[in-house]
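Lay summary. Proteins are chains of building blocks that fold into shapes, and those shapes determine what they do. In this project we predict the shape from the chain. Here is one chain we studied, written as its sequence of building blocks.
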Amino acid sequence: YRDERYEEIPALRMLRQGPSELRVRAETLRDLLNARGVAAEVVETRGQVGGGAMPLAEPTSFACALRRGDPAEVQEKLRDADPPVIARISDGRLLLDVRCLADDELDLVAVALATIGR
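And here is the predicted shape, written in a compact code that computers can read:
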């Protein structure tokens, strides 16, 4: 922290991402999902940092809201996928917040969503 080598600390790297970078990543994920037949839309959301020094911080983020089946059932299937995909339910929609996804993980998430329930 003292040396400001934020890119080497995953949590800090994720927290430092700006809204425009996150929106582009969410749009990329949406396009990958739609190309595989999974309907999704990009939505602005609020994250939650939690714990330690930032228990009340709620940074702006972007997510893909899925329009597929029962959100709780899809969420459970995603957690059981290989690799597991963690999503959250908000306002009755299943959200994939891209703040915690690297660019090289987007295709893995799209494949997992396209293959569950087959």
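What the prediction tells us: The helical segments are 10-15, 19-35, 71-80, 106-115.
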